[in-house]
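pinging the channel bc i need a second pair of eyes. not urgent but kinda urgent?? the chain im working w is below, pasted from the shared doc
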Amino acid sequence: MNGFSKRLRFWTAALLVLCMGVMEVGPAAAGLAPSRVTGTTSITSTRDADMVVAQRALENKVVAQKLRDYGVAPDEAQARLASMSDKDLHTLASATKGLPSGGDGTGAVIGILVVVILVIVVLRLMNREVVVR
């Protein structure tokens, strides 16, 4: 410490106090950053959300195969899905989402029942007859 004079030490300390005092002038504030739309989503209403859920269910391999077995083309099913009323579309989407995946087999049974119901609803909407023998 003998290399610095008293005058240099005083002005260095004063400068440090001044710098530290200036940095403490602005109050600190914390909060959540606001969210913003990324532009990657096309869901703007509940109908759009229900449409996405129903389309994903129609893209299921089992559902697509069942529809082909009954003679319904995927394009026809998509067209009929687009022309459904909001209430019917919401009912259909509600029946397909919220099901447990995996588990002890009850999920598989429920999944198969939902697939069968979905196929029957689509066929009935297309005025096709469902005959169980």
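so The mean pLDDT is 78. and The helical segments are 6-23, 46-58, 61-69, 74-82, 86-96, 106-125. — does that match what u expected or am i reading it wrong
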